[in-house]
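Quick illustration for those who missed Monday's session on complexes.
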Amino acid sequence: MTGTSQFTLSATLCGGALHRPGDPGYDDARRAWNVAVDLQPAAVGYPSSVAELAEAVYAAGVAGLRIAVQGTGHAAGALEDLSDALLIRTSGMRRIDVDARRAVVRVQAGVQWGDVVEAAAVHGLTVLHGSSPDVGVVGYSLGGGLGWYARALGLQAHQIIAATVVSSSGDILQVDEHAHAELLWALRGGGGNFAIVAELEFRAYRFTTAYAGMFAWDWSHADEVVRRWVSWTSDAPDAVTTSLRLLQLPPIPEIPEPFRGRKLVAIDGAVLAQDPEAERILAPLRELRPEIDTFTRTPSDQLVRLHMDPEGPTPCVIDSGLLTGLPEEAVDAFLAAAGPESPSVVMIAELRQLGGVLARGSETPSALPGFAAPFALLTVSVAPTPEIGAALKEQCRQIITAMAPWDGGQYLNFAEFTVDPADGFPAEHWGRLRALRLAWDPDEVLIASHRIPVARPHWLR
Ligand SMILES: Cc1cc2nc3c(=O)[nH]c(=O)nc-3n(C[C@H](O)[C@H](O)[C@H](O)COP(=O)(O)OP(=O)(O)OC[C@H]3O[C@@H](n4cnc5c(N)ncnc54)[C@H](O)[C@@H]3O)c2cc1C
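Prediction with flavin-adenine dinucleotide bound:
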């Protein structure tokens, strides 16, 4: 461990759970959700309260260590080297409070979406979760948070109304629109670059169902389905948010019938409208007579598993980008790179429908107001060994490269390895984000996935 001469990190500062290289628990403690990523931090701490979190931050500072924070390690691939860092895992901080009267939820840093969805549903509330129940609420929210209601209600980051944070020097602060409003702006989409979130408070919505589900066809229909979906998205109302995936699913027991071992083209999503209106909106897709059609009135707490994302630690490779559009040539390129005639064995080649509120930009002041790009592209494969992972990473990259003529920047929550973070924000926000990093973490103590560097005077660069 570097820089620990004056002060030794104490297990009592991490709730009794501090793991150093060589300790028996170190390997389990450092393992991220994405087990394909081999993190080697100087130490791993598991605080179980806000006070312990602050103490751990202070102790790391005295020991000369930098700090990385993880709820789950879904975005572990986007972190820098951690050899001089204390990795703080917040998975022991799982308290959830639902204020049904105000329709507001407050969570501790280690809470995962599946638990919030359930807790909110008890009170007739729905929250803006993503496609996976075991993604962390805080990491997802700080990075944007694109879910099934995004075109109608915006990003989860826009729902954030307050936070309890620990500054990089160990102070506990309350943040809301009156106190440290600039930091609140940065937390809404600017990631973990500015402070450590101990608790997050955000809006929920008073509805309990959506018209939601999945259409799926054998992927021999990919050409027709992709072209129809792309043309349908051009004037789809804000009420609907969907994803289209080319799926090459392995024949493993974890994947349920009738999906196991199949190659499919699937469209899933949600419509915030009454049934007749929702059916009218989806009619051009249903007209293509999907083999599987589960779209129906659905309790909103079931939507967190709609996408059937893998749960529990998973070795995977992910690549992504935003697309400026999908004209005919772009659809040709997508199908040639990932479709039935392609050499690709990538498990998931996904297009997420953006637009709606996301295109107009949120009225809530935020680092990430939305996306000018109308589509996000995501490629995902499970990588059981490092060698297979390297080959699949290359295949994922080939699909992204094929779509390079329509490159529309990055959605940093989907960027699972280092990219230029400036591509993840409106150009006019970049300087403000760097100035806020200077104000809140001038020595760059925090190691966030997707580093926003401090703004330095011109003569210091
Ligand atoms: C299977 C899967 C499905 C996904 N689905 C969606 C989706 O539908 N929509 C979407 O928008 N994204 C989705 N994502 C991306 C996901 O939102 C990001 O990976 C997000 O960063 C995960 O947050 P986490 O806390 O689970 O991960 P972590 O790796 O634990 O955290 C990610 C980063 O968030 C920051 N962070 C975490 N906790 C704190 C804290 N307490 N204080 C300060 N900073 C913190 C850190 O910079 C950290 O490196 C998905 C990812 C996967 C792997």
